[in-house]
Design a protein that fits this description.
9 strands; five-stranded parallel β-sheet; TIM Barrel; single chain
């Protein structure tokens, strides 16, 4: 599954991102491992693994995942696995990135437009009220199921810095707003081998920025990675001089600076 990020700033849009393209870093290869949904056990363990290597992790969480009435989504997003904003604030205070991943993980493209807008606003308002240090101008809204519409993208970009949304075709008028192409995801079973292949292919090219969209560890989430593999991958990557592992919002914020 390929995903794209859209932004509202034409200044940022003028900076080319993607595999084999330029970026504001002294490293040739920028890699983001971006974890979706909000699995409490997995996210704390991921944070520990990243901290062991002096890194910050990138987390995208469902705003209402901790509510008593939160309903499971498919076979993977289960209420008993979800963390809350005490957890997300704790991880953020440790230096990790926490971004919005919808109010309750509905396919927003299937909702009536006004209802979908209401759900987006509800999510963003909850983040504003409950995530310490949240700033809309630094936020990336990650659409659930990678499902969006042009109207929803335009609306959401009026509220945040950037969005992760659906792939667009070559003749789509929105392509002028594409910020970065190449965010990839895979599942539903263990994806250790897939991640390894993606990283190897990325390192074999000239450079650029690659985002791999992941979920939980071991038996948690759609397309999980094993704990042993994640620890080993991070250990290996930090020894490669050309590679920098960094959260999505950090890369975007670098580009929006003076």
């Amino acid at each position: 599954m390929n995903r794209r990020i859209f932004i509202k700033s034409t200044a940022l849009s003028s900076i080319a991102y993607g595999l084999g393209r330029s970026h504001p870093s002294t490293k040739s290869h920028i890699l983001t491992l971006s974890f979706d949904d909000g699995f409490k056990k997995s996210f704390y363990r991921i944070a520990d693994f990243f901290e062991e290597q002096g890194l910050s992790a990138c987390f995208n969480v469902i705003a209402s995942g901790h509510f008593p009435d939160f309903q499971k989504v498919g076979a993977w997003i289960l209420p008993e696995l979800m963390g809350n904003f005490e957890d997300w604030n704790a991880l953020k205070s440790r230096g990790h990135e926490v971004m919005p991943h919808s109010w309750k993980h509905l396919n927003l493209a299937d909702q009536p437009l006004e209802k979908a807008k209401e759900l987006i606003l509800k999510c963003l308002e909850y983040f504003q009220e409950n995530l310490v240090g949240y700033r809309a101008e630094e936020a990336v809204f990650n659409f659930p199921f990678n499902a969006s519409t042009p109207a929803l993208e335009e609306f959401t970009l009026s509220k945040v810095m950037a969005i992760r949304a659906s792939e667009i075709c070559d003749n789509d008028s929105r392509k002028n707003n594409v910020f970065r192409q190449g965010c990839r995801s895979h599942g539903p079973d263990n994806i250790d081998g897939w991640v390894e292949n993606q990283v190897e292919s990325f390192l074999a090219i000239e450079g650029g920025w690659l985002i791999l969209n992941l979920h939980g560890l071991d038996d948690e989430g759609w397309g999980p990675v094993s704990s042993a593999y994640m620890k080993d991958l991070l250990r290996r990557l930090v020894t490669i001089e050309s590679v920098e592992l960094v959260p999505t919002g950090v890369v975007l914020s670098r580009s929006s600076g003076p």
